[in-house]
Write a structure and sequence with these properties.
By secondary structure, this protein is an all-alpha fold. It folds into 2 domains: 2-115; 118-150, no CATH class. The chain is built from 3 helices and 2 strands. It has helices spanning 2-16, 20-58, 62-110, and strands at residues 134-135, 141-142. Strands 1-2 form a two-stranded antiparallel ribbon. Strand 1 and strand 2 form a beta hairpin. The chain is elongated and about 75 Å long. The two termini are 32 Å apart. Mean pLDDT is 75; it is low at 120-136 and 141-151.
Length: 161
């Protein structure tokens, strides 16, 4: 579900502005969707063979049950291997976003790029919020403090684990 929403979001961003970062993200997501489908197919197939193996063993066919069990283990191992590849692709996708973010920060720091940029100040959160607004030194309304614990939850109790 999250990947579907991400693909739709990237597609909308691509419609507005064609960008190499967006294209790289879409290509990465396409590969990840195929890997996830294959990983789930191998996992479900492995579990199906495992259940079928138990039924065959209860039926008294030990050799056939062993073969089904070996098949189920191989499919589960394949699912885990595909999962590892998908995790690596996921990390690469995050790296693409981070590289783009770092480029934008550098542009904001140096003032290069289109239009007038505000100086980058990491002490000010880059989240606009309708309440608890304060003015920063440039006169912009930014949320200056994000509480560590939301007020409706309250501080942790002593002795609670």
């Amino acid at each position: 579900m999250a990947i579907n929403a991400r693909i739709r979001n990237l597609y909308e961003r691509y419609q507005e502005k064609s960008d190499e970062v967006i294209i790289a993200q879409i290509v990465s997501l396409k590969k990840r969707v195929v890997l996830i489908r294959n990983m789930q197919a191998c996992g479900v197939g492995g579990l199906f063979l495992c259940v079928f193996c138990m039924l065959v063993l209860f039926g008294g066919w030990v050799q056939l049950g062993k073969l089904f069990f070996i098949g189920s283990l191989l499919l589960l191992l394949a699912s885990l291997g595909i999962s590892l590849v998908e995790i690596c692709l996921s990390v690469d996708a995050i790296s693409i976003e981070l590289r783009d973010f770092e480029k934008r920060i550098q542009k904001a720091k140096t003032g290069k790029g289109k239009g007038k940029k505000q100086p980058f100040d990491p002490g000010i959160a880059a989240v606009r919020c309708p309440r608890n607004l304060q003015l920063d030194r440039n006169g912009n309304k930014w949320l200056k403090h994000i509480p560590a614990v939301p007020p409706h939850i309250g501080p942790p109790r002593r002795g609670a684990t």
